[in-house]
Amino acid sequence: MKIAIVGTGYVGLVSGVCLASLGHQVTCVDKDFTKIKNLRNGVIPIYEPGLSELLKKVENNINFTDNLGDALIGCKAIFIAVGTPQDEDGSADLKYVIQCAEEIVEKSKDDKVIITKSTVPVHTGEKIKKITDSRKDIKFYIASNPEFLREGCAIFDFINPDRIVIGSNDDYSKDILLEIYSSFSIEKIVTTDIATAELIKYASNSFLATKISFINEMADLCEKTGASIKNLSYAIGLDSRIGNKFLNAGPGFGGSCFPKDIMAIVNMSKKYDCKLSLIESVIDSNKIRQEKMSKKIVAILDNQLSNKNITFLGLAFKGNTDDTRYSPSISIIKKIARNNCIIKVNDFQALENAKKDLAEFNNIRYHQDPYEACTDSDLIVIATEWNEYSKLDYSIIFSKARDKKILDLRNILDGEKIQKIGFKYFAIGKKND
Ligand code: UDX
């Protein structure tokens, strides 16, 4: 099928390339012509494992343009995948979605299904419907198809979805979406109305964020009581009603979705006079989390940060991405860097983004090499769960570090091995001896 996707951000670009890999003829549209020019040359603006290789493979099925009118010619379905940034009050700002719908309505020359892929508040479909009502000469159908891709493994997630949600209030748009996803088993597909589809995305992200905050609070309790969060997570995860995923305690959740979406659902619910006190407390719990992590660092350094070198291994909000949006690592560094100390940082993909986030500080040193970042260090903080950090040679790091202390905020190291080398090892959810 001929499909257009507006927005070549993370969701739009990954979805476009993956839809092309299903055999559809996809046109990706973006107003940023430099981005379009780069994409035409195979240059991808984000780091996502496997994406540039897949783009090369599907190059005959995909093209890029800044001209929406051209992209609309002959296409039955058009996805809106533009950003829904956070407004000042925490709500999702729909201005790009609305602008996009208005332009589609203005430039279309025949019937179209308009599908929102962006995460949008419940009843956004109705707002789009009102815009389309202004054209009487052609017919627009509205649908919702929220995206559940995780950064860092987005292509795997697209090919192996837990479910595909199709929200529609009419049979035609439902059938078009069923045709688009016809390569997937029908058991994977949930068809529902638009409002429910819109809310499913927020509910999923809120539940996952709650699960993480729950395990983080259990980690605090483990530290106080001498219990082990690793064993606790493993044991409760064996209960199939709980499930073993998203039970890794850490410095709190970040990224472009969870923090923004839980604020948005709370805000949205207030408009319906429905208080989501559980999710409100998840917002608080995650905020406090980063404060707690920086206090932990200060305590390990005996409240003496002056003239200390503190290393942060990892700046991205999680491993396998260059994304630093709402990264716990960045937020903790911001708290620590206000002191008279030197912060030495490393990341495998996120150094450039972090430089922008931390531009206000002149006591941060950026290192491409993790071993260099650990040289003369008084404390090494593992802040992002890059697999590579568990594979470093810690005996080399031991010889380079000044004081021999590691704080593993992601519990990725083998504590016993690290202690045998001679380090003092601090982890999450484990009482320090
Ligand atoms: C998330 C959702 O998983 C995805 O379905 C949605 O489309 C977008 O938002 P993403 O933001 O890419 O995906 O990252 P995810 O892997 O879900 O991790 C989010 C945050 O939670 C990260 O900061 C991560 O480190 C943290 N996390 C995750 C934990 O602290 N513990 C865990 O057990 C899992």
Quick structural summary:
It contains 18 helices and 14 strands.
Descriptive notes:
With 433 residues, the chain is of the alpha/beta class. It folds into two domains: 2-192, 3-Layer(aba) Sandwich (Rossmann fold); 228-433, 3-Layer(aba) Sandwich (Rossmann fold). 43% of the residues lie in helices and 15% in strands. It contains 18 helices and 14 strands. It has helices spanning 10-21, 33-40, 51-57, 68-72, 95-107, 124-132, 154-159, 171-180, 194-225, 229-237, 258-271, 277-300, 328-336, 351-357, 370-374, 387-390, 394-400, 415-421; strands spanning 2-6, 25-29, 62-65, 77-80, 112-116, 140-144, 164-168, 189-192, 309-313, 342-346, 364-367, 379-382, 405-408, 424-427. Strands 3-2-1-4-5-6-7-8 form an eight-stranded mixed sheet, sandwiched between helices. Strands 11-10-9-12-13-14 form a six-stranded parallel sheet, with helices on both faces. β4, α5 (95-107) and β5 form a beta-alpha-beta unit. α5 packs parallel to α6 and α12 (277-300) crosses α13. The longest helix is centred in the middle third of the chain and has 32 residues, at 194-225. The radius of gyration is 24 Å and the shape is elongated. It starts with a strand and ends in a 6-residue tail after the last strand. Uridine-5'-diphosphate-xylopyranose binds next to α9.
CATH superfamily of the largest domain: NAD(P)-binding Rossmann-like Domain
Question: What's the overall geometry?
Answer: elongated
- Percentage of β-strand residues: 5-15%
Q: How many beta strands in the DSSP annotation?
A: 14
The oligomeric state is single chain
The CATH class of the largest domain is identified as: Alpha Beta
Total domains: 2
Rounded to the nearest angstrom, the distance between the terminal CA atoms is 62 Å
| Structural class based on helices, strands and sheet pairing | alpha/beta
Our Rg estimate from Cα atoms comes to 24 Å
CATH topology-level fold name of the largest domain? Rossmann fold
